Amino acid sequence: MIKKNERHVIAFSTKTQLEILDDGYKWRKYGKKTVKSNTNYLRNYYKCSIRGCEVKKRVERDGHDSSNLITTYEGKHNHEINSSIIYNHVEADSEFELNSQR
Ligand SMILES: [Zn+2]
User: Would you say residue 55 lies in a domain?
Assistant: First the structure.
């Protein structure tokens, strides 16, 4: 599921047991909220930790299928990726792979 609009909102769902997908950016948690339709799960809010960058991320479980994690990004980063660890892109239903660097 991918949707996009003029406010640069991108949402996608991934089958994973992880609570947070490492996308290479550093995030600071700034809030959480109980989801009305699904009180078993919290919706967590994150903000990019780079000063001056206004990108926000929202992470929640799919109320219909709790094995799906829904991640929503809002905004565009105004800087390069800031992690030295490069993770392979994670596709739904594929195995989580990462390049281990020694
Ligand atoms: Zn950023």
Answer: yes
- pTM, full prediction: 0.68
- Do 27 and 46 meet the contact criterion of CB atoms below 8 Å apart? yes
Whether 14 maps to a domain, the answer reads yes
CA of 58 relative to ligand 1 center, distance in Å: 14
pLDDT tens digits, 28-70: 999 999 877 667 788 999 999 998 999 999 999 988 888 999 9
38-48, strands of its sheet edge to edge? 9-15, 68-74, 56-61, 38-48, 27-35
Number of domains in the chain: 1
**Closest of 19, 13, 25 to residue 86, by C-alpha:** 25
**Does residue 69 sit within a domain?**
yes
Q: How far is the CA of 50 from the centre of ligand 1 (A)?
A: 6
* Rounded distance from Cα 96 to ligand 1 centre (Å): 24
> Please, are residues 101 and 87 in contact by the beta-carbon 8 Å criterion?
no
